[in-house]
Design goal:
The protein is built from nine helices and 16 strands. It has 291 residues and is an alpha+beta fold. The structure holds adenosine-5'-diphosphate and magnesium ion.
């Protein structure tokens, strides 16, 4: 098969592993920088141009689109969809996953456990918003943050007030969320491919840090999910329409609470923690969907 990996950086662990796995399974594979693609649209002949070439006869694409280039990256994925390529991440699901608020609304409709979350356009009444979230401490999140940047723990109502004021002045949209203290600075990442959990790890934030992101210095260990956690993770990926997903959950006293569903989940942390060849599992997922 002819597989294209859409990635802005061929040196990233995930990109390299996917290339390796595709070669190992005898496919033609190329990394294409989606930010450098041109999209040509005319009657019934969708084309992608890349470095002066027409990209044709592609069987499948693996989008690895960074959060900073969601708009353009999604347009490129959509163009490949128009060309009838299989994609491990559909463009609509990609867009959905990048908006924290929209994602939470979809997950809520699917009946999943979530930390109570408030979104307001009328920011004057910070006190009421904090009360609605269960009172301080609360978590304040930038709607489009990633890797733990833009996630703030406000210990008091006063702190929440200043933080929200600051963000409002910058015209940045935020959500206010109940702080799940009993998670103890840890969360669970379930890696899902084609409706199956193919690996799970528990990430623990470094000493004194409530954010467990590996990019913030957290550490990861393989874990066995409880039945409840597995069901929740699978349901979340399905609700978001993602064939490949990293579902993040908090362990709370009322069961698993979904934090977010990642559409370009990194392979390094999960492959190291589980010792599994998850890149090959993704390639096999493509093989099952392309004849
Ligand atoms: P990002 O997209 O930046 O990773 P997250 O919503 O995943 O944002 O939050 C980053 C980390 O902060 C989580 O992995 C978790 O450890 C911690 N965290 C986020 N929300 C809460 C919450 N409501 N209660 C407790 N911890 C949280
Ligand atoms: Mg996260």
């Amino acid at each position: 098969m002819n597989i294209k990996i859409l990635s802005a950086n061929p040196d990233l662990y995930s990109t390299k592993r996917l290339v390796e796995a595709a070669i190992k399974r005898n496919h033609d594979v190329e990394v294409i920088n989606h930010t450098k693609c041109d999209i040509v649209i005319e009657k019934k002949r969708p084309v992608v141009l890349y470095k002066g070439r027409t990209i044709e006869k592609v069987d499948a694409v693996i989008p690895r689109i960074g959060a900073s280039v969601t708009f353009y990256g999604t347009a490129v994925v959509r163009q490949f969809e128009m060309m009838h390529c299989f994609t491990t991440t559909e463009s609509v699901a990609l867009v959905r996953s990048r908006d924290k608020l929209r994602s939470l609304q979809i997950l809520s409709r699917a009946g999943l456990g979530l930390p109570k979350t408030i979104f307001t356009n009328y920011s004057k009444n910070v006190e009421e918003v904090v009360d609605l979230a269960g009172g301080a401490p609360v978590i304040i999140k930038l709607l489009e943050g990633t890797q733990g940047i833009g996630v703030i723990l406000a210990e008091t109502k006063k702190a929440a007030e200043s933080v929200m004021e600051a963000f409002n002045n910058l015209q940045a949209r935020v959500i206010v969320q109940e702080f799940i203290k009993e998670a103890g600075g840890a969360d669970i990442r379930a890696f899902i491919v084609d409706g199956q959990v193919v690996g799970a790890m528990k990430r623990q934030g470094k000493e004194g840090e409530f954010r467990s992101n590996l990019h913030r210095g957290g550490s990861a260990n393989v874990i066995e999910l409880s039945d409840e956690e597995e069901t929740a993770a699978l349901k979340a990926a399905k609700a978001m329409g993602l064939g490949v997903a990293g579902v993040d959950m908090l362990q709370s006293s009322r069961g698993p609470l979904i934090l977010e569903v990642n559409s370009s989940p990194g392979l390094e942390g999960i492959e190291n923690a589980t010792g599994k060849d998850i890149a090959s599992i993704i390639i096999k997922y493509i093989e099952r969907n392309v004849d």
